[in-house]
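hiii so my PI (J.) wants the whole complex modelled not just the main chain, which honestly fair. so below is everything: two entries, each one labled with what it is. i double checked the lines twice but i was tired so who knows lol
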Amino acid sequence: DTEVTQTPKHLVMGMTNKKSLKCEQHMGHRAMYWYKQKAKKPPELMFVYSYEKLSINESVPSRFSPECPNSSLLNLHLHALQPEDSALYLCASSQDRGLGSPLHFGNGTRLTVT
Amino acid sequence: AQTVTQSQPEMSVQEAETVTLSCTYDTSESDYYLFWYKQPPSRQMILVIRQEAYKQQNATENRFSVNFQKAAKSFSLKISDSQLGDAAMYFCAYSGSARQLTFGSGTQLTVLP
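here's the output for the full assembly
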């Protein structure tokens, strides 16, 4: 069982749609992450929240908008996406952003943009 | 910038045998961590093992162990008594002063019955 829960598992959306991906953890972790992963490639970091504040934005297009309502929840709002945005979106959390603090990942949301 | 290289895109191993996955990295930092993550078809990235650069002793977790050669900047993963459930994509990763994971390109491991 994963301790980081992502919903939905699959999402198909048109380029004009607005949708949100959700991530939840109850391990008391204070750092949360969004990654994008293309097939057979390593994950690419998108955003990092530390103590509910955005600390890293890896030059992600504005059609992706993260939100951290509280220490347990992380959302990724999607708007006007492009077909090349189709990918697996992984959420992760860690106790903090300490050097050796391991990341715990969710099962991901498989996003298809039509 | 740090780089992580996995030179074996695919590996296979017979069930119950031992396999070693290679990873090399490049860094000028002295304080860092190295990780191996596995990603089975279920998609979840699972931490397999973690090694602190300052610790000379190689990390072990049950059937999984690493051979950490700091001077050579090498961090290989050995899986003993391979099981069907070990089949997955394995990623080597580095974490240093930037506090971000730098992943290698991955090695797809197939376990043959």
